[in-house]
Amino acid sequence: MPTGLFFHIDCLSHETPAGHPECVDRLNVILSALEADRFSALKRYDAPLAGRDKLELVHTSDYIDHVFDLDPDGGMAMLDPDTHMSPGSLTAALRAVGAACDAVDRVMAGEIENAFCAVRPPGHHAEPDQAMGFCLFNTVAIAALYARKNHFQHRVAIVDFDVHHGNGTQTVATKNKGLFYASSHQSPLYPGTGHVQDNGAGVIVNAPLAAGSGSKAFRHAYEERVFPALREFKPDFLFVSAGFDGHALDPLADLMLTEDDYHWVTRELKEIAREYCHGRLVSCLEGGYNLSVLGESAAAHVAALME
Q1: Which of 71, 123, 192, 227 has a CA between 20 and 30 Å from the CA of residue 90?
Q2: Confidence band (pLDDT; 50, 70, 90) for 264?
Q3: What is the pLDDT of residues 91-137, one digit of tens each?
Q4: Residues with Cβ < 8 Å from 213, sequence gap 6 or more?
Q5: What is the CA angle 143-93-163, rounded to 5?
Q6: pTM here?
Q7: Digit-coded pLDDT (tens) for 45-54
């Protein structure tokens, strides 16, 4: 079965202040890289708009109201010091959630084996009641609970290889038995969460890595900590928070990874998905802020999904 690519032009309408690392060109370089001939077999989909019912799987009504009320007619609104809304931001965020949930539906229908959602804004820092770290709604956490509710996938796993810990996703996993959340991330680094000893109602596996760790330590963390725990969990469905800001050239961190590391970890996760959940895997873009390497990093990820 093919790999699906989910995108909508509305995701380019989310604008941020001049000089902000989470900029429109992030998606442009990824989409350009995925136009190469080797990606011609991708099955491409326009992301639908998510309704409020999907947002409420994770977020409080008061928080959703707050975001909708702040939706600006012009200029910028600020949700937190790092997280801004332009006139197109709310629609972009709803497309991002819609992409992930539509990908779940199409994977479950057997139309595609797996999917990459090339969407923005990112999501993994968004708490149920708070925007954080460039994120409005927690796309992957919403899609995970959507898979449980609508497709009866009772054991849902999320693996997050963004260089920053996904505090919002972990919050959701701590409250929901049957969710698995694993994160590799640089520590100490924003947002200061993601400790080895964290636990909750769901399964929490954190693999903090020191600055400068590089490929060997990254792969060791997965082989010795993340993959064994994921196999023990035996997921029915696997989600990936795909952040490429661990790259050696990324300006926001110092984990010193390469495109080959993203290809490797994706290939291994795909094999675990095939082993335990019929290949069911949906990946969503999170971070990655060096435009010169972001496209090829995402391309390495998608290429592994297509193998």
Answers
A1: 192
A2: very high
A3: 999 999 999 999 999 999 999 999 999 999 999 999 999 999 999 99
A4: 186, 255, 256
A5: 70
A6: 0.98
A7: 999 999 999 9
185/161 Cα distance (integer angstroms): 7
Q: Which of 8, 125, 185, 263 is catalytic?
A: 125
Model confidence band, residue 210 (pLDDT cutoffs 50, 70, 90): very high
125 is catalytic: yes
Report residue 174 as tokens: 């701590």
